[in-house]
Amino acid sequence: MRQGRGHSSMPLGLLALAALIALLFAISMGSASLSTAQLWAVAQGQGELLASTLVWELRLPRALSAFAVGGLLAVAGALMQVLLRNPLADPYVLGLSGGASIGALAAMLVGLGGFFVSGAAFIGALFSTLLVFGLAHGRGGWSPARLLLTGIVVASGWGAVITLILAMSPAERLPGMLYWLMGDLSYARTPWPPLLLLIAVCLLLVPLGRSLNVLARGAPQAAALGVNVRPMEWGIYILASLLTAAAVTTAGSIGFVGLVVPHMLRLLLGNDQRLILPACALAGGTLLVLADTLARTMIAPEQLPVGVITALLGVPTFLFLLHRSR
Amino acid sequence: MTILTTQQLVIDVPNRLSGTPLNLTIQPGQVWGVLGPNGAGKSTLLHTLAGLRAPRSGSVYLDEVPLAKLRRRQVAQALGVVFQERMDSFPATVLETALIGRHPFLSAWQRENSADYTLAEQALACLDIASLSERLVNTLSGGERQRVALATVLTQDPAIWLADEPTNHLDLHHQSAVMELMAEQAKQGKSVVMCLHDLNLAARWCDQILLLYPNGEAKWGPRERLLTAGRLEALYRQRLTVVEVNGAPVFVPI
Known about the structure:
The complex is a heterodimer.
Chain A: H1 9-28, H2 36-43, H3 49-84, H4 96-109, H5 115-137, H6 144-168, H7 174-182, H8 192-205, H9 209-215, H10 219-224, H11 229-251, H12 257-269, H13 273-297, H14 306-324
Chain B: E1 4-10, E2 25-26, E3 31-35, H1 42-49, E4 57-62, E5 65-66, H2 72-78, E6 79-82, H3 94-99, H4 114-126, H5 142-156, E7 160-164, H6 172-187, E8 191-195, H7 199-205, E9 208-212, E10 218-222, H8 223-226, H9 229-236, E11 240-245, E12 248-253
Parallel strand pairs in B: 3-8, 3-9, 6-7, 7-8
Antiparallel strand pairs in B: 1-2, 1-4, 4-5, 9-10, 11-12
Helix pairs in contact in B: 4-5
């Protein structure tokens, strides 16, 4: 529960180790399981062609995508919770995933695929962000409560539009749409954009960690201690939205990671954002790598939506931790 | 030595048409008590003095520089605020909370060093909560949380204290202890401005008094001139009687 005087390397080291193990697990599991020896051979560039294709072109990119998406969602969730000073906030609470879903589903409805679905999702996410931003700003004051309410109302609006699109869609397109809505990493092509974004954000947040700690105590307190509250709040909002948009664009709207990972870590590690934010990147990534590996192996050759697995893994773990802590 | 002054300052209270322009000079070593009925604008005045709220007109100066021209961080290095209400959506330990007071003095890349920890630990000891340092703030009683808030500002160690009802929720002993702490700060050359509801604490511990009336009028000056039964009865619209205890006036409502 308590961290010592800035000794945060120990939990981060353990989480990094867990992430590495999860990635190795993801690479070795699948229709053709690879042994440690085979993996070692592939890593040295000597494996059989099939094994090295599996690793380098299929499993590793997908596992890295899952890691990046999980990390982005967890960091975005932690930021939203600090911004809104509401422990129930998650990356989607402000309607962003709804906007992205409508973009993606509309693209699928007219028969577009691949790149266009991702592009449309990204545009939808940004549009929703700007819409909530504009509406919450409105005339006069702005407050976390107002932003939260605006976001929730916009999100339910998107919910209705999503149902409308699903109702209008021809039956053969429905499974793809539903998978997208529940999160599906088979849309992920290259892991690099989300992965680089995740690394950049973790570095960017290092100098901001203490200010975020102060901001978590409330806006007046933060202002009295020298934080420029308003620019900081908008900055966090835009950043968290961008992270979520990148995650949603890569893998559809995967629930739960952004809500539960930050809280799990707070229960275990305390509430210093300087530790929690990088820990979220690692733990969120690890959770999604494991969930995606299970999603594609449990009923192979069929795949499950990864959002189902994150919830099935996350709910009991979270409830256990919550129950254990006071 | 930091001096807080105001020139023609009118605070912005909603639905109030006008107010006495305040020309205050808060000197090092002074302890100011702000008195007035609910809604007179005591907290608003304090927040305006801290630069957290724009005045309707006039300005606040920190060593002759307008507050609006300073960066928040510079203001926070000189001026500490004890708030009346506080939010703790996310639990933090008492020690972590007090350490937040060092925020204005650390660059973005710095972590708190052992000197900062020492300051925070001394502040906790001073407010009699050293034994709670590892407790989560949201598990504390109201009075303990009040002392954590005071310890945070003590860790910040500002030249000017702006305290909104610093004795809120405190028991009799800790009320006196906190008032002694404020007096001690003033003796060290700091200045203290606090909103108070307890006239007798004001009578005993403040040397300057500012009376805020619900219509925006204000009167200020040395305690002896301002703290009279007549003025206070008009201020609170409450009959009072004054008794002398150990040579000091004690106000009792009747």
